[in-house]
Each structure stands twice: as C-alpha cells, then as structure tokens.
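Table S2 (continued). Query chain:
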Amino acid sequence: MGRLVDAWRSQLLTTLSGDGDGRPRWVDEIEHGDDEGFFEPGSAAWAVTGGMPTLVAGIRALLLQTLHPGAMAGVHDYSRYREDPLGRLAGTVRWIVTVTFGDRALARRESGRVGRFHERVKGTYRDAAGVEHAYAAGDADLLLWVHDVFTESFLACHTLWEGEPPGGADRYVREWAVAGELVGVQHPPRSAAELQESLRSFRPVLQSDERVAEAVRFIRNPPLKRSMMPAYRILFAGAVASIPEHYRRMLGLRRAWWPAVTATRVLLAAVGFVMGGRSTSEEAARRRIAALGTTSSV
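Corresponding output:
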C-alpha cells in the first residue's frame, strides 16, 4: 500500500511540477531572497494557492478561458497544449507558486518571463459576427480576462471546498490583484464585487465555436497516465459543477448525475493525505522568512 501511495504521489507531482520528487529546481530559488515577498504567512493568497482546491481551480479556469475568442486564438495558435500539455501546466504552476511564495525580486523576474512569452503571441481572430480582429496576448482586455478567470476560479473553488479564505473574498481578490499587475494587468479588480462586475463586462464578447469545443474535449481527456484518469475525471466533474450555468451552457457541459462536489471533496482530502502536509514551495518560503527574522508567524 505504501509503495502504491508513493507511486501515485510521484505521478501527481510530476504532472504538476515536472519533477517526480515534488521539488523542481526553481523551488530552491524560493528559499532564498531579501524580503517576505508580496504575500506572507496568514495571507489569503497563501491559503488559496497552497490549498488542494487549486487542483480543481486550474481545470475550471482553463475551461472558462476558452470562451474569449482572443484568448482562444492565442491558445490555438501558439500554445503547446496539444504537444506538451504537462509542460504548459508546469510553466503556469511555476509562475503562480513563485509569485505567491517567492521574494519580490523573484516574483518580478518570473513574471517577466511570462511577459516575454506574451510578446510573441499575436494574430487575428473572428468574432461571432464574422468580423476579424487583431489580438496580442499583452492586450489589456485579454490580460484582464485571464486574470479575472483565474482569480474567480481559485476563489470559488477554495470557498466551495475549504470555506472563505482568511480575511474573506475581498482580501483574496485585493491581494491577487498584485499578481495581475506583475504581468501587466491594468486596474485589476480589488473586491469580489468588482471581480463579478468585470466578468459581466466580458459577456458580450464571449462565444462558443469549434475551437472552444476542441479545447474542452482536450481538457476533458488530457493525455495523463491511465492510473491518474479516474481521479482526474472526478476533479473535472467537480470543476464543471462549480461553473455557473450560463458558462456551462456555452461550454457545452452538464453537471454529472452523481454527487461531483462531494466526491471531489473526498478526493481532495485523499490527495492532501498522499501529498503530506505543506507544499515544498511553502516550506521553502517559510525557511526564507525565518532566516530574515522579520516575522514570528512562521
């Protein structure tokens, strides 16, 4: 049984971080630095990003992201999601974790890496009326859409499966606005109400087409190892159950007939047990902060 748990843990860590022992080389950088970072122990950002519901939130955010035709065009034209989906996932995880737990210089450097990739992503897409538009990944509206979707998904999943983050939803949205600004988001929402209003403002732009359907099919059945797929199907069903109905209709998805939210809760608890305690990134951050001697909350 122990060997089975160890094998499953290694597969999960490889999927998320690209490294089977759960400590990719870039985590070493989190352990060193000159300040606490943009967030610290007890922050809403640490609670949400360090929580198990992020496993569901990532799936949820990717599904919702496809509904903006400009974002979908960038994914379709430039993303490695077909050829190297796990590499793309590991890159996203690296940015989120580094910004959350690293010191400020490291967070800025990692955000710069993401920004340099965005500079290459540009092209055209057609809207629902057939009108062609130019797009670039660094466009203000696309950056805001992706930021809103990730913020709302991380917050919604944490609230559903773990309860409100420390300080409430407003605190998390306000804190994570900093992460958005690091990659160029202008005027990100700073309260839960502002976040919902920002998402509503995108509704006239959103559309569903064959590209969206193709991406949804891929997200539903990614090329994971067979042993990972039963757990992934539960996480996917949990993600779908957490999405508001109007978005589900656009994505062509339905809630599972079985209790997906409860099954996801059980699975997340099991994953937490298998992973064992805090993430290596959080532990690295705590060691850095302890060495600085600037906080007693470690």
